[in-house]
Amino acid sequence: MNEYQTNLTRRYDIDWLRVILFGLLIPFHVAIGVYWSTYGPEINPNIGDISNENTEDFANENNDYTSESVSFTSMVLHWMHQWRLAALFMISGMGTAFAFKRRTWKIYLTERCKRLLIPMFFGAWTMGFAGSVIMGNETITPVGLTYGFLFGIIWRSLSFWIPIFGKLIALGHLWFLWNLFQYSLILLPVFHIVRDNPEGSISSILRAPFRMRMGIGTFIIIPLLLSSTEILFKPWFPGYIGVGYEWFWFFGFFAIGYICITSKDEYYQLIENQRVTITIATLIWTIAFVWLRLKQHDTGIPYVDGGWVGSEGFHNRMTVLACLIHSFHAWFWCLTIFSWGSHVLNRNNQYLSYLNQGVYPFYIVHMPLTFAGLRLASDLGLRNHSAVIIATLFVILTCWLFFEIVNRFKSTRFLYGIK
């Protein structure tokens, strides 16, 4: 049995969306290294021909290679970033609902450790070190590399849990797995109660939003609950790699994904019957988000990113509106993705199982390969879209070769979370 299965009807659409959304991670991470210099100007193909002493001034003066940019390409990246991770956390919550139906809480927790913590630690030790080597942060001698690798194991293992610093320095892109484990652990009692009492009061309360007339629960109450996490936590600290307000925000999406599946046919009937309405509303909220992002750029107040306390006070009408627009925009994009996915992707394919197995290995190893791809594009003298395309193809090809290798051995399948 597959974890995306209910009433003997397998949900291939969730499998497909998991593959697609994780797949978008590669071009996204490549693109932000080109258009935002996220990993440093030294591996950005667009400014590779600028001398070292002038690189920082070049980026700041033109404002083209930071995340504050509002060029068309940069705005596309901003737009994608607001809903892609939210949708992935929803998919993880959906998978949890299916998986917990046939597991005790002890078996489920053991599997979470195997599928999340072991790949997280092993990936942080190996891929974190590989990325450091590619970025030129290690001494390239046998002694230096050995020391760097062993020291990295120690300090990454001891510091991963520290808020902000731990995720950024020790886990890097693998923060997603750590958040998933925390969410799964916190909601474990709820999973157990709902599984054992599917028609109980808690189960009924969780399903209530999808039973409300005219979609009020889905279209208004759920995004308002998501907005409340922003209103409470967003003023204090910018959301970044799942910390700050994002920890609570993504927790909400994970829980909602779980609720969607426990609601059974009510959820799927709603997104099927309201698909056009959802799509139209999503377009409207997208326009509102673009306006908000431009407003942030013009005023310098981080309405989208958060962390405005000190310059704007706790809240005013504009900051509350920003929280509402941000959550409603992300939520309706999730609804659009899942409604159209359910409509066109709920069918099997001979490659689907293979692609699903590749998700974790691709995700774990893609970041150091992204650094290598950006260096390759720089060395080839590529710029802009051509640099993104070539670097993305390089990362996909090398990830696939890596997956083919680790998929052949039981030990490496275990270490990289291949089911």
Question: Could you write a compact summary of the structure shown?
Answer:
The chain is an all-alpha fold and 419 residues long.
Overall 3D form: globular
Cα-to-Cα separation, first versus last residue? 12 Å
Question: Taking all residues together, what is the mean pLDDT?
Answer: 89
| Spatial sequence of strands, sheet with the most strands | 1-2
**Residue share in helix:** over 70%
> How many beta-strand runs?
2
Biggest beta-sheet profile: 2 strands, antiparallel
Q: What's the helix-strand series? A: EEHHHHHHHHHHHHHHHHHH
Count, helices: 18
**Category from helices, strands and their pairing:** mainly alpha
Q: Which regions are unreliable across 5 or more consecutive residues at pLDDT < 50?
A: 1-8
Strand content: under 5%
Radius of gyration: 22 Å
